[in-house]
Design brief:
By secondary structure, the chain is α/β, with parallel strands linked by helices. Helices cover 26% and strands 23% of the residues. The protein has helices at residues 13-16, 22-34, 37-40, 72-82, 108-118, 136-148, 165-168, 187-197, 233-245, 261-267, 270-276, and strands at residues 8-11, 44-46, 86-92, 122-126, 154-157, 176-178, 209-211, 250-252, 285-288, 297-302, 307-314, 320-325, 337-343, 349-354, 356-361, 365-375. The termini are far apart. The structure holds beta-D-galactopyranose.
């Protein structure tokens, strides 16, 4: 089964946009393996828009850009596979992609076959220039074309949340659906996109996940979606932890060749990834929500094996003391149980906390914990 848990990988768009080529992509494959990203779970290397020639060939097939990919796309796919990674590519449900390259409208079965032949494992399918107002049919058609292609290909729909995609993506054979417009490397963008999906997370789960967009962690203002200096390390922590708690796919967007130690440690944080990849794939409860009377968010998730995740998010510009009284998650103070708690960032065991758990959370930062419910004296 594909997408049992949220898909993980790297995508070329955030950093490189149209400036992609064989050498850069192959170097990224090297870094994904050598720097431990594959081991951490990031298995898909995805080439986004701008990889093809502007014209199809005489038979109507897509052709890789001769200058960017002089040895063709199968050569790149073979290299990626030889590294133990999976290979992803991009197309669009209109006749043109968003950047004006040939899209798959009217060529769905032909393109799916071409993708299968060169060894594609993942297709990101964009939403530009499609001919009718509704595009549910276009996505359903490509889902079927991929199934008919003879290869198992993960279907990543990128329709930016149009037509309440969370309500119909699962029934159209889609494995992950972009629920938002494009992310930018700013805290404002991170908060705006993630806030917008809080009401929709109940639809997300095994086989079909809500994709809040690719990560900007570590971009630091560089690249294709950079904004001035980007975000602080604390804000990137907030971003990554939120994507993990929300079960969003984790598609890295920064240049892996130049990342800092902090970025590397964050993107490969085992505890946070384990929450994102929890096999029960249950969406979070919002105990507190900064969309209402509060200026912070407390997020609680049921995990496999009787464990729980608790996360505190402080988007404000002031340090905060935040408390979770357990009656807010339905536990009576006299019930005789407390939470045995471990900090997911420091790995420290914090012992058993009864009746409530309170933490300090710095401005624009978060704290994330793994908890077990235990009998408490
Ligand atoms: C946008 C999409 C981006 C990127 C871009 C390529 O529509 O949301 O993630 O794929 O197109 O042109």
């Amino acid at each position: 089964m594909l997408a049992k848990t949220p898909p993980m990988g790297w995508n070329s768009w955030n950093t490189f946009g149209e400036k992609i080529n064989e050498q850069t992509i192959m170097e990224m494959a090297d870094f994904m393996v050598d720097k431990g990203f594959l081991k951490a779970g990031y298995e898909y290397l995805v080439i986004d828009d701008c990889w093809s020639e502007k014209q199809r060939d005489k038979k109507g097939n897509l052709v890789a850009d001769h200058e960017k990919f002089p040895n063709g796309m199968k050569y790149v796919a073979d290299y990626v596979h030889a590294k133990g990674l999976k290979f992803g590519i991009y197309s669009c449900c209109g006749p043109l992609t968003c950047a004006g390259y040939p899209g798959s409208f009217g060529h769905e079965f032909q393109d799916a076959k071409f993708f299968a032949e060169i060894g594609v494992d993942f297709l990101k399918y964009d939403n530009c220039y499609h001919p009718s107002a509704s595009n549910k049919l276009g996505y359903n058609r490509m889902a079927m074309a991929l199934k008919a292609s003879g290869r198992e290909i993960l279907f990543s729909a990128c329709n930016w949340g149009n037509e309440k995609v969370w309500e119909w993506a699962r029934s159209r054979g889609i494995h992950m659906y972009r629920s938002t417009g494009d992310i930018f490397d700013s805290f404002e963008s991170i908060c705006r996109l993630s806030e917008s999906q809080k009401p929709n997370l109940g639809y997300s789960g095994t086989g079909c996940f809500n994709d809040i967009d690719m990560l900007v962690v570590g971009m630091k203002g560089k690249g294709n979606v950079g904004i001035e200096s980007g975000c602080t390390d604390a804000q990137y922590r907030y971003h990554f932890a939120m994507w993990c708690m929300f079960m969003s796919p984790l598609m890295i967007g920064c240049d892996l060749r130049t990342i800092s130690d902090e970025t590397h440690a964050l993107l490969t944080n085992k505890e946070l990834i384990a929450i994102n990849q929890d096999e029960e794939a249950r969406p979070p409860i919002f105990v507190r929500d900064n969309r209402g009377q509060h200026d912070n968010t407390i997020c609680f998730r049921h995990l496999a094996n009787g464990e729980y995740a608790i996360a505190f998010f402080n988007p404000s510009d002031k340090d905060k003391h935040i408390m979770l009284p357990y009656y807010e998650i339905g536990l009576d103070p006299l019930c005789g149980y407390g939470f045995k708690i471990r900090d997911c960032f420091t790995g420290k065991n914090l012992g058993v906390h009864k009746e409530f758990f309170d933490v300090k959370v710095a401005a624009g930062d978060c704290r994330v914990f793994r908890a077990q419910l235990v009998k408490a004296k």
